[in-house]
């Protein structure tokens, strides 16, 4: 397998990446393996993770604290863009991967590695997301994806491999029903009984959010402040991105907000069922969707809303560091230049309703919209409708032969005349 | 104002259209006015409405029962298409107007009328929707829109007019805080304290849905069956469209489901705040969105989801009877040809979650998606990613001068080589 | 390589597919190979092709005459849709592949074959187009793509293989500068000096079209008649699809019309330079684009024009037999329901200009558009502009602080007032 | 008509705007009228124009030389964006109006005017473009559009008005067959015999371009250099935007390049027939379209191409100074960040062909695309196709019951097995 000497491994501390260290050394002529961890908000005993990496044979261990930047530079732009994959999935895993892979590439380049390795399986989306980032940031480095190469075909095989090499797996056991991903934005659950798409997830599966049924029986009001499409404050208090996420997650989780159960379309074509908990994210999206309707005019808003699907597709595909995403980002930034203001939400037993919004740049003018007297000229509407509907009327005249009430054919000329005359 | 002799009036029984009858007679040389009512599912004492119309001077009265067709031929296609205006408004008023206007035109043609009249104000969307339908179906008839012509500028003026002509307004009074629209799909509320967009709607304003806080503290499961993208059964029982809507409305309303508070962009450009109750509709949309993800492949699904915005824009604009809507309908129909199956919802205190789905045409194959062994060939993924990411890698190589770990420039040729070699 | 017994081979009579027959027999345990040819309009000595196939070891030979159907069922819908890949490539190869593959699959199923084989290389688009059709029509059959498997890496290797097996290659020689594809719609040229994208193609490379410089120095008028978006007649004479293509090709080729030189993006990500001759097709597209502007109203036309890119992408990708293409077809069919009429072209030394058009369903009404007096009410325009531009004005007022001439700040209220007042 | 005291008039020197000065004074209580002219590249005796304005009663005259900026800040971004309305009209009039109106507004604000006036008719697009710019830049100023107000209904009426007031019209006569617009980008022709859409334009109508039949019978090569999507040099010589346009117009006009004959959809709904000469612009668009295919990767290129329709719609509508256009501009700018290089065109008797292109950022790599040996791994293609086509195959299996050759039903399980197995 060539002259690979130093490998940068995206290390999680889990079963797969632990045995990968050993497997790499066995298969790449005892190459050096650097274990690279990223703290993206998951709960973890980081000292134990480091110990596990070194025990498993890593020559070096890195831990990147990506939390603040993940929120401010990845998640918030995505919220601004309104990106929700297939209208349902809030892209919790997708948004973290490019940043995690970028951190790995940065270390790899600094350390002079000649290969990048990840522990994603050959069926999922994450392999694509990691490797597209590798291609974008270090296309000259080799890529090793053990799950697509080795003979280990299941969790059980992996544990057998570990045991045969005396790798200490700590509390990892053969029984791990769900495949999970966790960061400051979300937690996902796949596998187990979820594989039958008709099965309802068990309450015990959820980790972040309280069941709506056990949430408090009282409403909580939350006010989120935005500047230029970015969240900047909560209930009147300015805060940085990571703190914002923590606070919002706390409020939403406590009130059972943010669960979805979907069957999405993976990049590699197949459908896949997943349960997602995105508590704070649900509040952010709800608020931002409202504020954009309040502050962006129709052409720009409708353009933005359609393009948010393209943006979501790019994020889902791991195409963060690509021309298309950069270009959509510029567009979104410009469109939300005046999306500054506050949205008031009411959170209650699984629900998050918008109940008010205000902005110095509100395009909603009470005077224009109200039913009472105003200086809006209602007569303008007649001209507007006549021209706005002109093509509809002309098309109708041209496409069909109309009759008047008496069964008499209406002549084109006569139609045209009354048409203009109105 | 010409030789108008017989006018078909879209009559609601409310204040505006009642005084319009008299106003038309006064201003169009005692022309005959035919009052045309439509039952679209609102609660109404229809005998009283008829009496009111005749009292006000109508020569004839028609009442069309549009309920079943409104559900089956207008609402269901719209749900199939996934049309939600600006991602938030379920188009409750918009979807009824073209059908109501079509019924009016049908009568007008049968009766040999020479003009069509409606009671919409000059600031709103409904005038556009009515008149675009007129243009599409009877472009040779004249259109009269009194609110854009007369001197009556407010509700108070209208009542004064009625009193000066001794028109009996029944229970209509000067105090009518909210402007409302009601049919089998929804009820809308505008005006009053809502005009300040920061104000939360009062609980007393809602008419269809119970407050989530007062909804039962237990979950209700609902199973909706679809055939080719259309709802056909509820909890295992086949039913027609109107009954389906009634049942779904009952369940959802009882459980506080279906309220939204939004500031939308009107056709005539201004922003407008509205509160909508769409109880059963919320269940239908939720279920249909899920089933389409389960049964439609990625290209077609993503195409459909983006086009649903165009479909929604057309419905909102009253462009139901136009080439563009007809064409999108054909597209939506084809895409949902196999969207047959059942979706299981859990309804609870304002929430409606999908908790399971099944279909004879599920594109979700447990075997393909699962984490255990299968005959999916993981090695395919390597080739896929290499080509799927080829342009990302080539772009990266071309756009930047990369360095390897040692600060050495990476030659293009070397990059290209390792790129292919991977 | 398993128990493959009978292979359906897409046979062209060229070098590659000739040696494939022998290679298949050697590598699949002397499996039976059925050679399947398709006449899509290329010039060929079909008897010689048959002889070559049987000489090379095929057990059976089929020749499908696909010309009329290729034109009527594939090319004409594509022209109706306005599909041109990346705005430049008229999809000449792409449109034929699905039909050729379908013919092959039909024979394979009728003959009880257990595998499908094609001779496309592993770098191009055609492998994708063939195999996507296989997957769509016979996903249970195995696929053999020798170029991705064998050790033959070049034209020279292939000839060596043939010589070592005594396969008679007729006039095929090692020197074949360009890679070409030819059917009734187009001829493509790749390779040779074209690989340097700065090189101009040599005149001697072209095969279908006369050089514009050698074309007659006089104009030729051509009138093409369409019904519902499909070409049906030429210069007043009804004709079937294949005859239409023949006639149009003759006129256009004679006059040097239809050459393009482009660098397109292949499905597998890389850019590729090609020269295309699409003589008759250029006339058809030019005429159809004009007639659609004449007969389709703005909403539908603009929808169609944007969707034509999606349609083109699907054709380019070989996704002819997919839900998305079927759905777009329904849309295009509906939109062009009244695209009936005639377009007059002037053809001259490489040019094809539209110089007139007429239709019973023209949406162009002289009276409406002319500059002289008419019954169009110019005053409508004021109302139209006021509302059409309302959001632009409101946005301007909200986004900036304006000054009047004297350097005085203009108050929002004052702006709003004059705004409405206009 | 209120207290309007000082009016800024967009003055052309033509018949309409000459009588407007007098008409304004008569109808607005002898208000002061400032005549504002713009040089956008049309041929004009500017001294005579000034004299005419002052003779007609203008209190002041301004002449703005907008040529360089029109090219660099309006036309070039539009070319970069690839904006061509309805795929045919190169937006020659549309692109100039916002800048002309902006110049008018700037003077109006500096002079302390209280109203803006233009001489566009009530049927066309230009009134919309002028007034949308007014709304965007000075929403507090009043707008006067005499053609929508006065009783003058034709050219003849206008001349009568002028004669009755002794306004010296110079060489303007009643006979002016075509309505024309001219600037450095194009000249348009409407009216006269063109109103019958079947009539071919007379050769004598054209003003900018030589007839292809009278163009030289020899090819001319032109090389255009671009930087970041903007034209910067011609045949190796750097030049500013206006000089570039002049040079390109000269070459193209001399060779009969740039005529189109179309029926477009006006903003106010009706269809309208126009003939356009856009000589240099045709060269620029042709070259830029080619270079973008050469330097932009597939995702970004396809995104750009679809969005160019939206950009064109905004320009056509006069929505230059709107959020949506600003946002698309940012997108286009980002996408073309590396669209730097040269395109070689051959111009000959009406034709403009690309015959070569080069770029330091070419994404076309000879090595990757060529047919000879390279280090591209053809085996990747198999994996790519299997996953790229996975959903097509799964959909086929799920949607239909297939038969094998013998008429036996193929079991789903069997299909799936061979599917994966391939």
From TrEMBL, chains A, B, C, D:
Binding residue positions for L-citrulline: 89, 94, 125, 129, 179, 188, 264, 276
Pathway note: Amino-acid biosynthesis; L-arginine biosynthesis; L-arginine from L-ornithine and carbamoyl phosphate: step 2/3
Broad class of enzyme this protein falls into: ligase
Residues where ATP binds: 10-18, 119
Keywords linked to the UniProt accession: Amino-acid biosynthesis, Arginine biosynthesis, ATP-binding, Cytoplasm, Ligase, Nucleotide-binding
Domain Arginosuccinate synthase C-terminal as annotated: residue spans: 178-392
Primary residence: cytoplasm
One Pfam family per UniProt: Arginosuc_syn_C
Reaction(s) catalysed (UniProt annotation): L-citrulline + L-aspartate + ATP = 2-(N(omega)-L-arginino)succinate + AMP + diphosphate + H(+)
Keyword Cytoplasm in annotation: yes
Residue ranges of domain Arginosuccinate synthase-like N-terminal in the record: 6-167
Protein family membership: Belongs to the argininosuccinate synthase family. Type 1 subfamily.
Name under which the protein is recorded: Argininosuccinate synthase
Organism whose genome encodes this protein: Spirochaeta isovalerica
Gene: argG
């Amino acid at each position: 397998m060539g002259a690979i000497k130093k490998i940068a491994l995206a290390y999680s501390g889990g079963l797969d990446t632990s045995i990968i260290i050993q497997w790499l050394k066995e298969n790449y002529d005892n190459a050096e393996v650097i274990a690279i961890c990223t703290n993206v908000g998951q709960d973890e005993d980081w000292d134990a993770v480091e110990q596990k990496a070194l025990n498993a044979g890593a020559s070096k261990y890195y831990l990147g604290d990506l939390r603040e930047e993940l929120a401010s530079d990845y998640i918030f732009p995505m919220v601004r863009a309104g990106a929700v994959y297939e209208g349902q999935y809030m892209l919790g895993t997708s948004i973290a991967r490019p940043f995690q892979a970028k951190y790995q590439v940065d270390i790899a380049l600094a350390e002079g590695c000649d290969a990048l390795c990840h522990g994603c399986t050959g069926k999922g989306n994450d392999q694509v997301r990691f490797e597209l980032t590798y291609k974008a940031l270090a296309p000259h480095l080799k890529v090793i994806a053990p799950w697509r190469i080795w003979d280990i075909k299941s969790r059980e095989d992996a544990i057998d491999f570990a045991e045969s090499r005396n790798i200490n797996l700590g509390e990892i056991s053969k029984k791990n029903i769900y495949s999970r991903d966790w960061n400051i934005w979300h937690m996902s659950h796949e596998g187990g009984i979820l594989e039958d798409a008709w099965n309802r997830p068990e309450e015990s599966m959820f980790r972040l959010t309280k069941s709506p049924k056990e949430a408090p029986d009282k409403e909580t009001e939350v006010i989120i402040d935005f500047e230029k499409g970015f969240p900047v404050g909560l209930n009147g208090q300015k805060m940085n991105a990571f703190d914002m996420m923590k606070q919002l997650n706390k409020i939403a989780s406590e009130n059972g907000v943010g669960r979805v159960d979907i069957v999405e379309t993976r990049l590699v074509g197949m459908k896949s069922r997943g349960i997602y908990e995105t508590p704070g994210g649900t509040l952010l999206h709800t608020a931002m969707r409202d504020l954009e309707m309040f502050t962006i005019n129709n052409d720009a808003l409708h353009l933005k809303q359609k393009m948010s699907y393209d943006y979501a597709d790019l994020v889902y595909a791991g195409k963060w560091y690509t021309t298309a995403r950069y270009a959509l980002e510029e567009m979104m930034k410009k469109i939300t230049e005046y999306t500054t203001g506050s949205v008031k939400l009411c959170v209650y037993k699984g629900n998050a309703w918008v109940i008010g919004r205000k902005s110095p740049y509100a395009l909603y003018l009470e005077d224009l919209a109200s039913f009472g007297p105003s200086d809006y000229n209602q007569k303008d509407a007649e001209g507007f409708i006549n021209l706005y509907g002109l093509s509809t009327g002309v098309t109708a005249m041209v496409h069909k032969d109309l009759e008047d009430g008496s069964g008499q054919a209406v002549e084109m000329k006569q139609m045209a005349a009354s048409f203009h005359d109105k």
